[in-house]
Amino acid sequence: xxxxxxxxxxxxxxxxxxxxxxxxxxxxxxxxxxxxxxxxxxxxxxxxxxxxxxxxxxxxxxxxxxxxxxxxxxxxxxxxxxxxxxxxxxxxxxxxxxxxxxxxxxxxxxxxxxxxxxxxxxxxxxxxxxxxxxxxxxxxxxxxxxxxxxxxxxxxxxxxxxxxxxxxxxxxxxxxxxxxxxx
Length: 183
Prior knowledge:
The protein has helices at 4-35, 47-59, 78-90, 94-120, 123-134, 137-142, 149-168, 172-182. It is an all-alpha fold. The longest helix is centred in the N-terminal third of the chain and has 32 residues, at 4-35.
């Protein structure tokens, strides 16, 4: 009994620290999205992704603004499809909704990184993974502009979690989840 008390304390401490990291990450990524005008230089990151999503939502065509030809293979269709669906679900302009949704993706990514490390190793590993994710320069920059990083990072983390679940219990449900994560 005495041995389980320190374990519970360690888990509660790790859970509290993860919650604190999550709050910091949310505040850090939401503040620019709510405070800075989206017309500021660099606020949009790469505007071609937005134009691809806008045209996909409006016309059902995968092409940038003013282009007669479809987009090149340089731009993968997942993020523009995500922006088009965001605009459809928001029922209006894309820009007020997208930065807030991107902040939610960043928070989900932090939780996914922590969950994977906790399941694979320990609460301390979860805290380390969450901290590395939260303060990663690539992810941190994604909180201040619209970009593909939060969505793609979350997809990679979902795949890692599904692979971990499958490795622990390779059965039909875990295989289905892994297949879904693989796309």
